[in-house]
Amino acid sequence: MIKRISVYTRWYRKWHKFTGLAGLVFIAIISVTGLLLIWKKNSGGMILAETQTGSSTNPESWLPVSRIRNAAIEYLKKQEPDADTTIDRLDIRPSKGVCKVTFTEHFSAVQVDMATGIPLLLEKRRADFIEQIHDGSILDKYAGTGWFKLFYGSFVGLSLLFLTISGFFLWYHPKKIRRVKRLKP
Prior knowledge:
With 185 residues, the protein is an alpha+beta fold. The chain has 5 helices and 4 strands. It is 57% helix and 14% strand.
């Protein structure tokens, strides 16, 4: 029995080490970017800009979305003339009376007052950049592939699952061997 447990333990130790070394860089990237994303709203605007407050939270007084979109594009052109103005999404914050207009080709957004159409802030979306590193989609975006994110996420997820299971057995098997040795006459 002890010999069989020892064989399993050696197998787990070998593959635990190999998996840990193979996934070291990826796991470190996911860990660091995950920590940054957890702290994004408490970073004092370093990772994620504070959401500004518009002049009205009453939807009845808000301008049409097309005017908000146009105001954001004009403001971006004034601040960064060479920036692409293709819009990715409009993120309306009803409790703040603000619309965040984010762009597809760069990590910028313009916060626009929904009632007046006045741009309040041009923000750098560092959190979006960090998130794309975190989930691997940044390489899909720049390399034009569609599979890297799936490979990267699956590899790291399965590696962490295996490291958890093998780590448990590397801890448990020596305890089991000691218990068997104590019980043996």
